[in-house]
Design brief:
Layout: H1 2-20, E1 22-23, E2 36-37, H2 41-46, H3 50-81, H4 88-95, H5 97-100, H6 103-113, H7 119-126, H8 141-166, H9 170-178, H10 183-194, H11 196-211, H12 215-220, H13 232-241, H14 246-277
Antiparallel strand pairs: 1-2
Helix pairs in contact: 1-14, 3-8, 3-11, 6-8, 8-11, 11-14, 13-14
């Protein structure tokens, strides 16, 4: 495992870091002697670039919005399907279909649903509302991508949270009910505390998966219009393989890695704190 990590993850990451400290374009890529070392200049240029700041803002807006809706709705579904009723299993299985779909299929589906003559505008038209051009309007394109990402993420959240709920003994709820606790009190003082580790894991995994999103945006909008749906992943790809500014693209990728690395450290610190308290 260590050898695999070093060869397929460690080596490319180190090479990408080195690339981000140079000035490498399509002309100097195959000529190492012409690659000029510029130090932190690529990073300085990025943080003075309005487009990069917009992309960074888009990434956080996209991630936080998706986390809020995915977790809230996923938790509600988990609570609902944790109840004992006849069709709980089959319906829960049907909801998981969206999570099992390849992201490329989800992107194409979203592109069709939110097109000018797509399902959403067709439904809005039937109730007398003129729908916007979702994917070509800078104020609605990101909303459309967030909705499609939530469609995939809600079942994922539900699946993990249901696992956490099933680990709570029914006897705990029965004892609380006998002591006069209502539904809200049982949720606040039993469910949430006992599911703290599961909730933390879901939020951290959700943040990591959403923050590094690429394929959904690339297929639905290709980062447009006017970079309104560009995130760090798509922007790095565009710089490297569309504009052939490999060094700047590598710098964006390292910013993405740094953000995820810090979140990972924060998660590990919380886990160690939980273990110490436990």
């Amino acid at each position: 495992a260590a050898i695999y990590m070093m060869v397929f993850i460690g080596y490319p990451m180190i090479q990408n870091l080195i690339l981000s400290f140079k000035n490498v374009d399509v002309y100097s890529f195959a000529q190492p002697d012409n690659q000029v070392f510029v130090g932190l200049q690529n990073y300085i240029d990025l943080f003075h670039d309005p487009t990069f700041l917009l992309v960074l803002r888009n990434t956080f807006i996209f991630t936080i919005a998706c986390l809020i809706f995915q977790f809230t709705i996923g938790f509600a579904f988990a609570m609902f399907f944790n109840q004992k009723f006849k069709l709980a299993g089959p319906i829960r299985g049907l909801i998981l279909v969206s999570y099992m779909m390849p992201m490329a299929v989800t992107g194409l589906l979203g592109k069709n649903i939110f097109s000018n003559a797509g399902l959403i505008n067709d439904l809005l038209g039937k109730i007398g509302i003129s729908g916007p051009e979702w994917l070509v309007n800078t104020s609605t394109a990101l909303i459309a991508v967030i909705i499609m990402n939530c469609w995939v993420g809600i079942p994922f959240n539900m699946l993990l949270l249901v696992s956490g709920l099933t680990s709570i003994s029914p006897d705990v709820y029965e004892s609380a009910s006998m002591d006069g606790a209502n539904w809200g009190q049982r949720f606040l003082f039993i469910t949430l505390p006992l599911m703290k580790e599961s909730i933390l894991a879901v939020l951290m995994l959700g943040f990591i998966y959403t923050f590094r999103a690429f394929d959904l945006m690339y297929i639905m909008t290709a980062g447009g219009p006017l970079n309104s749906t560009d995130v760090l992943g798509t922007y790095s790809y565009m710089l490297s393989f569309t504009q052939f500014n490999f060094s700047k693209g590598a710098a964006v990728a390292m910013v993405l890695f740094a953000c995820l690395f810090l979140i990972g450290l924060f998660y590990l610190k919380l886990l160690s704190k939980e273990e110490e308290e436990g």
